[in-house]
Amino acid sequence: MLPPPAHFFPDFPDEDQRHHHDAILLALRRTLESGNFVLGEEVVAFERELARFLDIPHVIGVGSGTDAIELLLRALDLPGESTVALPTLAPSAVAAAVRRAGLQSALVDVEDETLTLCPHALEALLDGPAGKRVKVVLAVHLYGHLVAWEPVRRICEDRGIILLEDAAQAHGATHAGTAAGALGRAAAMSFYPTKNLGAAGDAGAVSTRDDALAEKLRRLRQYGWRTRHISETDGINSRLDEVQAAILRVKLPFLARHNARRGEIAARYTKHLHGVRLPVQRPGCTHAWHQFVIRTGRRDELRRHLELAGIPSAVHYPAALHQQPAFAHAGTFPYAERAVAEVLSLPMHPYLSDAAVDAVCAAVNEFTRP
Ligand SMILES: Cc1ncc(COP(=O)(O)O)c(C=O)c1O
Q1: Is the pLDDT of residue 271 over 70?
Q2: Beta carbons of 132 and 108 less than 8 angstroms apart
Q3: How far does residue 190's CA lie from ligand 1's centre (Å)?
Q4: According to a count of CB atoms within 10 Å of the terminal CB, is the N or C end of the chain lower?
Q5: Which domain holds residue 293?
């Protein structure tokens, strides 16, 4: 098979900037000429526009997704020794943020089908000896697929545990018509350039319906200030940048349309790929298709085969959190351990052509053909 031309597989952040080039330049000019560089009109407008998109009262822009998790956990004012339960198949940023908030992590295995937090494993943790210290569950909507929301919500509600979302990979995903980011007590989001809604650098936000929590977060992101130069609580400097907010405002109106194109690409892959395990979509949910992750026991060989065919791929993630030196953790996590040996993310973003998707399918099928 001839390798596909290089432009078949543009890099998503590059292509996204190119697509919005003129509008972004206008937005940058407006921002620079305003002379208002920190927590100005662009941040306020982006927070309002994202809140409208999510149908939620409050969005608080912060410096990154990691900061969003840390600040959200700090804003809850949990007792010392509190533990946060989170899936072991997640980016290391999540566990790092929990630690920075001064809390412990309790890792939980994932569902075999969706690779999101497993409700049964969560229940076993909460009803076991370490369960009493768990005050928060952080539901990570991995790859753009929502966590099994109803079972996880019920488990938390029955035990008085706070349920938070990590919606960094799930911009625009929904559960029963409600947006990821508007389901739990509050949600953290990242706008890292590769995300479905991506800035041109680091950026993040917290969304919540809770007025008091929102107020606390606005203080925490800026030195704990109640008013200028008067700190009421501890706080850090983690403000969403005006420039990033202006760029995000350009891109937000395209998110739904781009996610719809991601859905078409996922359907095309699902129809044409053979011989690998395909991702599923839970009934009642819309998937944001941040990643299209297939599984095979011959993952590394397939990856090499694709590379030789000129097709990019990635592994999300090469190790579960409990397997990483910084977060080593006792417990059994069979599904996450199998997943990290098998997962392969195929090209997925709204600028991919059908011909590019077909070239990926042909290369995968050539490899798996008996
Ligand atoms: C699920 C998830 N949570 C948190 C983060 C951290 O976000 P950031 O890189 O903006 O700090 C990321 C992104 O890397 C992520 O994918």
Answers
A1: yes
A2: no
A3: 5
A4: C
A5: 254-368
Mean pLDDT confidence for 219-237: 94
Q: What is the pLDDT of residue 331?
A: 86
Looking at residues 314-318, what average pLDDT do you find? 98
Q: Based on the domain organization, do 202 and 305 belong to the same domain?
A: no
Per-residue model confidence as pLDDT tens digits over 88-123: 999 999 999 999 999 999 999 999 999 999 999 999
| Residue 205: burial class (beta carbons within 10 Å; 0-12, 13-18, 19+) | buried
Cβ contact 182:56 at 8 Å: yes
Q: For residues 247 and 23, what is the distance between their CA atoms, to the nearest angstrom?
A: 9
| Same domain membership, residue 275 and residue 216 | no
**Ligand 1 contacts CB of residue 66 (under 6 A):** yes
Q: Where does a domain end: 224, 252, 280? A: 252
Here the tokens at position 31 are 């921002």
Query: Residue 129 Cα, ligand 1 centroid: separation in angstroms?
Result: 30
Each residue of 344-358: pLDDT tens digit? 999 999 999 999 999
Peptide bond into 335 cis (omega under 30): no
Q: 86: CA distance to ligand 1 center in Å?
A: 14
Co-location of 197 and 103 in the same domain: yes
**Cα–Cα distance between 91 and 206 in angstroms, integer?**
18
User: Are residues 88 and 236 located together in one domain of the fold?
Assistant: yes
> Structurally, how many domains does the chain consist of?
2
Residue 112 located in a structural domain:
yes
Closest C-alpha residue for ligand 1 atom 8: 65
CB 292 within 8 A of CB 267: no
Distinct helix (H) and strand (E) counts, the chain: 13, 14
* Cβ-Cβ contacts under 8 Å for 188 (sequence gap 6 or more): 65, 68, 69, 72, 97, 164, 165, 166, 167, 168, 204, 205, 206
Q: Are residues 165 and 268 in the same domain?
A: no
Domain boundary among 252, 271, 286: 252
pTM of the model as a whole: 0.97
- Can you tell me which atom of ligand 1 is nearest the CA of 204? 10
The answer to whether residues 130 and 106 touch, using CB atoms and an 8 Å cutoff, is: yes
CB of residue 68 inside a 6 A radius of ligand 1: no
Same domain for 282 and 232, yes or no, is no
